[in-house]
Amino acid sequence: MSFAHLSLFFMLGSLALFAVALRVRRLGLRDIAPAAGLTLAVLLVLTAVFDNVMIGSGLFDYNSQTLLGIRVGLAPLEDFSYPFCAALVVPALWWLAGGSDSGAAPKPTSPHDSGKEG
């Protein structure tokens, strides 16, 4: 099994968990897209920088037979699936565990929800 196949399984599982969390918490994709996009962009940039530094310094390398052969600098393309999965799995687990929807747009409330009597 190649790294690409393994990565595909993890990405599909991450997408499924993320979709379940959005549905359970009744969050719209539009509500969380800016925060999720920014998170993913930062993780991808950090991965590109640090993977290239670590591979370039000889800390590790990959067997080229298990890779697609596409690289971003020295980092194989498959390495970028991990930040993608993390950007989906971490908030999904947070929401499913009962954490707040702080990345989402505020939901409208009625005067009865504020706790004030009027």
UniProtKB/TrEMBL annotation:
<keyword id="KW-1133">Transmembrane helix</keyword>
<feature type="transmembrane region" description="Helical">
    <location>
        <begin position="80"/>
        <end position="97"/>
    </location>
</feature>
<comment type="pathway">
    <text>Carotenoid biosynthesis.</text>
</comment>
<keyword id="KW-0472">Membrane</keyword>
<feature type="domain" description="Lycopene cyclase">
    <location>
        <begin position="9"/>
        <end position="92"/>
    </location>
</feature>
<feature type="transmembrane region" description="Helical">
    <location>
        <begin position="36"/>
        <end position="60"/>
    </location>
</feature>
<feature type="transmembrane region" description="Helical">
    <location>
        <begin position="6"/>
        <end position="24"/>
    </location>
</feature>
<dbReference type="InterPro" id="IPR017825">
    <property type="entry name" value="Lycopene_cyclase_dom"/>
</dbReference>
<keyword id="KW-0413">Isomerase</keyword>
<dbReference type="Pfam" id="PF18916">
    <property type="entry name" value="Lycopene_cyc"/>
</dbReference>
<protein>
    <submittedName>
        <fullName>Lycopene cyclase domain-containing protein</fullName>
    </submittedName>
</protein>
<keyword id="KW-0812">Transmembrane</keyword>
<keyword id="KW-0125">Carotenoid biosynthesis</keyword>
